[in-house]
Amino acid sequence: MSEDSRDADSSDADADDLTHTTDQGEVQMVDIGDKPDSDRRAVAAGEIRLQPATVEAIRADEVGKGDVLATARVGAIQAVKHTWETIPMCHQIPITNVDTDFSLGEDRVELAVAVGTTGKTGCEMEALEGVTTGLNVVWDMVKAIEKDDDGQYPATGIENVRVLAKEKHRS
């Protein structure tokens, strides 16, 4: 592999060295033991589409289960800290910071999660887990008012989950 074909985060090793399979095709965790520690940060975002009346109930803190955004914030942070338990090949990493930022639109709640760590591997999976769990908590908190007469959720959907930024700086 030429230097030009590597991305900015793979400068520590060839892509062939960062595989989740053995030569026999068996799944394995990547060995990061020889990588130097770096300060790392990742930001992920997503949104949950809701009925406008549901968003207004969240804004007015009138959802029967309690404070939707406060509960979702706790869920997002818990998910970040436990990512290694739910994503099979993720390493357990020291989380140094988690920031959550909720934004209420007319028919949606947007969530951005920023995660910081100092270690040998990135934290984008932790940021993604924070977003998806935080949005799932919103859904759980509002599902009684989102259901239609048949018990379905035609106006509800989690969408546009993505990594917005990934940074690495040598410690």
UniProtKB/TrEMBL annotation:
The active site is at D140. Catalyzes the conversion of (8S)-3',8-cyclo-7,8-dihydroguanosine 5'-triphosphate to cyclic pyranopterin monophosphate (cPMP). Homohexamer; trimer of dimers. Pfam families: MoaC. PANTHER family: MOLYBDOPTERIN COFACTOR SYNTHESIS PROTEIN A (PTHR22960). The keyword Cytoplasm does not apply. It catalyses: (8S)-3',8-cyclo-7,8-dihydroguanosine 5'-triphosphate = cyclic pyranopterin phosphate + diphosphate. This is Probable cyclic pyranopterin monophosphate synthase. GO terms for biological process: Mo-molybdopterin cofactor biosynthetic process. Pathway: Cofactor biosynthesis; molybdopterin biosynthesis. Substrate binds at M89, C90, H91, M125, E126. Its EC number is 4.6.1.17. The lineage of its organism: Archaea, Methanobacteriati, Methanobacteriota, Stenosarchaea group, Halobacteria. GO terms for molecular function: cyclic pyranopterin monophosphate synthase activity.
